[in-house]
Amino acid sequence: MSIVDLAQTYRQPLSVDAAISALGGGAVALAGGTWIMRAPLRDEDIDRIFVSLAKIPALHLISVDAGRLKLGALVTHHALAAAVVSLPEMAALAQAAGHSANPAIRRTATIGGNICTQGFAAADLVPACVALGASVAVQSAAGASTLPIEDYMRTRASRPEDEILCTISVPRRPGRSAHARGLLRQAGEYPVANVSVYLELDKHGMIATLRIAVGAVEALPKRWRSLEQALTGQPLKTPLVADLVQSLTDEFTPRDGIDAPGWYRLRILPRLVEQAFGDVAAQMEGAG
After folding, report:
1. Are residues 185 and 161 in the same domain?
2. Could you report the per-residue pLDDT of 215-247, keeping only the tens digit for each?
3. Is the dihedral of CA 26, 27, 28, 34 positive or negative?
4. Is 0.85 surpassed by the pTM of this model?
5. Domain check: are 62 and 167 in the same one?
6. Helix H segments across the chain?
7. Are residues 31 and 129 in the same domain?
């Protein structure tokens, strides 16, 4: 590729406004680039104009205060895991970021890319963000707005082509969380199913607040609301968890893929939920 060709296909703006101006007309935003890197393996055309966001300082920021964790969209998995490892309620996010793919990918892949990439059903960070009640701030030529990550994911395919996801905001709450991944092998691959759990107990030790998000099973991550309702009011170590999970899996329409068939994704869900609940219980025992 010549220098002229490179200038026509790759742009590197220095601000969000400049990036928005560069998008459109088929141009696409580029974050860590790990998904694009594997495009030829998926037989996808990469003859496109890429707008790199890497040189925009605001997209790399991480801030934590008493009420909220705020992440720029270009924060890498590695940096995210390091930033939240000491925040007990963010364990699901720390685990999702710290165990996704492999160390090389974690140092390059970004939270914004994990959220925005279409066709990537096995993202680890999205279910964790859903379970923790995250919201996203987006900006386009039409203006800026903030919306729950669940709403963003539902509308992702139809959002403006010049829109950029700028920040992810995660509320800090008094509960605990965990993330469990189902793999066909032990490391270096995407999960065939994953589960993130956030919960709070009342003064009697019963589950008072519960959010369960399932990823990789369907094309988009999904709250498991029927299981949330069934377990709310129950003790954390209820022996009914496995039975309830098994009885409620028909809430999902699992996808078949080259990594695993749909039936297998459903089969491992009970184990993943039990694993996540057991992790939360161990955290609470350790803190108590």
Report:
1. no
2. 999 999 999 999 999 999 999 887 778 788 889
3. positive
4. yes
5. yes
6. 3-9, 16-22, 34-37, 77-84, 91-99, 103-106, 111-116, 125-131, 149-155, 225-231, 241-247, 262-287
7. no
What span, in angstroms and rounded, lies between the C-alpha atoms of 257 and 255?
A: 6
3-state secondary structure of 171: strand
CB 28 within 8 A of CB 50: yes
Say if residue 254 is in the same domain as residue 282: yes
> How many Å apart are CA 46 and CA 270, to the nearest integer?
39
Considering the domain architecture, whether residues 212 and 268 belong to the same structural domain is answered as yes
DSSP state of 191: -
Identify the bridge partners of residue 235 per DSSP, sorted by sequence position: 206
Instruction: Centre a 10 Å sphere on the Cβ of residue 185 and count the other Cβ atoms it contains.
Output: 6
Instruction: Kindly indicate the confidence band of residue 151, based on its pLDDT and cuts at 50, 70 and 90.
Output: very high
DSSP 8-state class, residue 254: P
Strand order in the sheet with 207-215: 176-182, 193-201, 207-215, 222-223
Question: Do 188 and 170 touch, CB atoms closer than 8 A?
Answer: no
User: The tokens of 177 are what?
Assistant: 């969380």
What SS3 class is residue 236? coil
Look at the chain and report how many structural domains it folds into.
Answer: 3
